[in-house]
Design goal:
This protein has about 170 residues and is α/β, with parallel strands linked by helices. About 45% of the residues lie in helices and about 10% in strands. It has ten helices and four strands, in the order ααβαβααβααβααα. The protein has helices at about 1-5, 10-20, 35-45, 65, 70-75, 90-95, 100-105, 120-130, 140-150, 150-155; strands at about 25-30, 50, 75-80, 110-115. Strands 1-2-3-4 form a four-stranded parallel sheet. The longest helix has 12 residues, at about 120-130.
Length: about 170
């Protein structure tokens, strides 16, 4: 973090790009641990924060509990990722559906979510879910969290709770 804020750190390059109208907004992202991201957000007025948000998050080192409220208080744009946890959320006979996964995350105070797709029908399904979105209440959120709890290690692979897929070896995904 100190290197980011150093006189020759990446933040200076980010500010220069913004000042030269190369980019309009500055943001941060992280997968594994909300603590360093929290420190960054507390030290600098970033515009956006891209963070891993899904129903399993509440069960281990939670972005929802440790970072999201701070970003909301600072009026930052919040972008959710890892909504279906690289489709692992559908393993073990379908822990939850894409509708539950998306609706859960959209019920959080997010600006938008990012979901990778492989086929046009997946995009069409996601658009349909977004169009029909109705925020979940606290009991509905809790029910989905409980549904995924037994599989949290598998679903939170990006936090280091289980092995990364072999094809990601050497990549900082």
């Amino acid at each position: 973090i100190d290197r980011i804020f150093a006189d020759d750190g990446v933040l200076k390059a980010m500010e220069k790009a913004r000042d030269e109208d190369v980019v309009r907004f500055l943001g941060i992202t992280g997968h594994a641990d909300p603590a360093p991201m929290k420190e960054l957000v507390e030290r600098y007025p970033f515009d956006t924060c891209l963070m891993a948000l899904n129903a399993a998050d509440k069960h281990y080192n939670s972005f929802i509990e440790k970072l999201l409220p701070i970003c909301v208080d600072k009026n930052m744009g919040v972008i959710g990722m890892k909504i279906p946890a690289r489709d692992r959320i559908f393993d073990h006979g379908g822990i939850i559906s894409m509708k539950e996964a998306m609706t859960y995350t959209l019920s959080l105070p997010v600006s938008t979510i990012i979901i990778g797709i492989d086929k046009i029908p997946e995009l069409e399904e996601n658009i349909s879910i977004a169009k029909e979105f109705k925020a979940l209440n606290e009991d509905e959120m809790l029910a989905i969290e409980e549904k995924v709890k037994p599989y949290k290690d598998h679903l939170l692979f990006y936090k280091g709770l289980s092995d990364w897929p072999e094809e990601w070896s050497g990549n900082n995904v």
